[in-house]
């Protein structure tokens, strides 16, 4: 079941606040124009190894957020996971040296209900009018993939993207 914006719009007085984050970052998303080069760099520099990869079957939400998403590879070492991905888009090579390369950071929550609380909490703060957002874009719906992983994406006031995710036992390798 996919959550909608209407499900998330609640008043601060009636919303149950989400539990505090425990510091668990699930992964950092890195868009690259040269996947082989990036994999080799993270293997050699950080000692990462490829955990898994995906060439097809991206959800509709992923395809809307990242048009042309074509290949995703997770590299990991210890508790550090990087999702390196490419997009089939017209470009004349790598981005300019001073371009912002940050794509997103994924924060993991413990339960489905906590994920929904974070979703409602984001909407509650966004709709409060107390903040100025660099991007006037609403948080995404909650997306559920074939393995049962549930996620939503939202921007902070600076336009930086965060993914919040719930991983049921057995999803994403070592959940």
Category by helix and strand content: alpha+beta
Radius of gyration: 17 Å
Quaternary state reads single chain
**Rough shape?**
globular
**What percentage of the residues does DSSP assign to strands (E)?**
25-35%
Mean pLDDT: 83
Major sheet attributes: 8 strands, mixed
Helical amount:
10-25%
Which strand order do you get reading across the main beta sheet? 2-3-4-1-5-8-7-6
Intertermini distance? 21 Å
Low-confidence stretches: 1-13
User: What is the helix tally?
Assistant: 4
Instruction: Give helix and strand order, one letter per element, not per position.
Output: HEHEHEEEHEEE
Number of strands: 8
Q: In terms of topology, how is this protein built?
A:
Blueprint lengths: L4 H4 L16 E7 L3 H12 L2 E6 L5 H6 L3 E9 L2 E8 L16 E6 L2 H16 L15 E2 L5 E6 L5 E6 L9
Parallel strand pairs: 1-4, 5-8
Antiparallel strand pairs: 1-5, 2-3, 3-4, 6-7, 7-8
Would you write up a description of this structure?
This protein is α+β, with helices and mostly antiparallel strands and 175 residues long. Helix content is 22%, strand content 29%. The protein is built from four helices and eight strands. Strands 2-3-4-1-5-8-7-6 form an eight-stranded mixed beta sheet.
């Amino acid at each position: 079941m996919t959550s909608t914006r209407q499900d998330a719009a609640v008043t601060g007085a009636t919303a149950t606040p989400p539990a505090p984050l425990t510091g668990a970052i699930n992964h950092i998303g890195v868009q690259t124009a040269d996947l082989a080069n990036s994999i080799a760099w993270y293997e050699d520099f950080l000692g990462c190894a490829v955990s898994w990869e995906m060439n097809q079957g991206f959800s509709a939400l992923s395809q809307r957020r990242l048009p042309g998403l074509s290949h995703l590879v997770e590299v990991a070492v210890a508790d550090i996971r990087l999702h390196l991905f490419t997009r089939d888009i017209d470009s004349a090579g790598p981005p300019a040296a001073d371009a912002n390369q940050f794509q997103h950071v994924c924060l993991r929550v413990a339960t489905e209900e906590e994920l929904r609380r974070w979703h409602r909490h984001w909407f509650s703060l966004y709709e409060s009018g107390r903040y100025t957002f660099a991007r006037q874009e609403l948080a995404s719906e909650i997306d559920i993939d074939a393995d049962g992983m549930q996620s939503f994406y939202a921007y902070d006031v600076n336009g930086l993207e965060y993914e919040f995710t719930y991983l049921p036992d057995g999803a994403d390798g070592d959940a």
